[in-house]
Amino acid sequence: MTSSRTTLRLLAISALAIALAGCIERRDPGFQGWVEADMIFVSPDESGRVTKLDVREGDEVKPGAPLYSVDDDLQLADLNQNNATLANAKQSYDRAASLSKTGSGTQAALDAAVSALRVAEARVNTSQTRLARRNGFAPVGGTIQQIYFREGEMVQAQRPVLSIMPPGNMKLRFFVPETELPKLAIGDEVKVTCDNCSADLTAKIYFIATTAEYTPPVIYSLDERNKLVYLIQARPSRPDSLRVGQPISVFLNARTPVADKR
Question: Any residues with CB less than 8 A from the CB of 4 and at least 6 apart, and which?
């Protein structure tokens, strides 16, 4: 009788262990991560007041599309001044060239006039470039992610007025423990799941960190080694299906995880 009870208990324990294992397998959460993107920040070369915004957040832009304008009073005044200097330099050059032809002028005077004319022309070109750059244009195609300065606000030199997110710059960041690291390699395809995402979403690994994150500043023991995690980055196959900051779950192969089979 006792032997029968022992056998029944063992069977019950085995069944419970199998059930728990199945439950754990069904609830496999994968590796947790999130969506990020390498933004392109567009900023003016010099400080000024934003006078016009040609786009809104969420707009799709193509390379070369107008984005914003910054007041150009100072740059225009600088151009006018340099144009006046150029006109005087041309007069001086014409006078020196005429005197040189008649033999009344010296070669040194002509050389000085030529040099002054070249400097004046260079300054005009610089002023024209500074004036043209008061208007910002899209360096790449993508989506306007965020606008940092509105019309009427002062923006400092090299401070971004807005940011653009090219589709190809979307990336997934997730961490894997040290024990799983040998299973991964650059170019591997992984399965990606998230709330309301497509069921066939995948990504390709392009970066694997060589150093651990969140490493405790103590000598490693076996327990502490289990806490070591490594950053992995992957490019999604369908970046338009994701949003920056969105949490995701990543599985180490492109097959449908057990959690999705239910």
Answer: none
- pLDDT higher for 163 or 226? 163
Distance of alpha carbon 32 from alpha carbon 24, whole angstroms: 16
- Pairing assessment for the beta strands 202-208 and 189-193 based on DSSP bridges: antiparallel
Does position 61 have pLDDT exceeding 90, yes or no? yes
Task: Report the amino acid identity of residue 130.
Answer: R
Cα distance between residue 123 and residue 86, in whole Å? 9
The tally of CA atoms less than 13 A away on the side-chain side of residue 219 is 0
The answer to whether 237 touches 204, Cβ cutoff 8 Å, is yes
What is the token pair recorded at 178?
């040290």
Farthest-apart Cα atoms in the chain, separation: 135
- Token readout for 88 is 């005087």
In this prediction, residue 76 has a pLDDT band, given cuts at 50, 70 and 90, of very high
Contact at 8 Å (CB) between 113 and 104? no
Q: How confident is the model at residue 252 (pLDDT cuts 50, 70, 90)?
A: confident
User: Any idea how long the chain is?
Assistant: 262
Q: In whole angstroms, give the CA distance from residue 119 to residue 121.
A: 5
Question: Does pTM surpass 0.90?
Answer: no
- Residue 92 confidence (pLDDT): 92
Pairing of strands 170-177, 66-70: unpaired
**Distances in whole angstroms, Cα of residue 256 to Cα of each of 189, 200, 209, 260:** 12, 8, 26, 6
**Other Cβ atoms within 10 Å of 247 Cβ, number:** 10
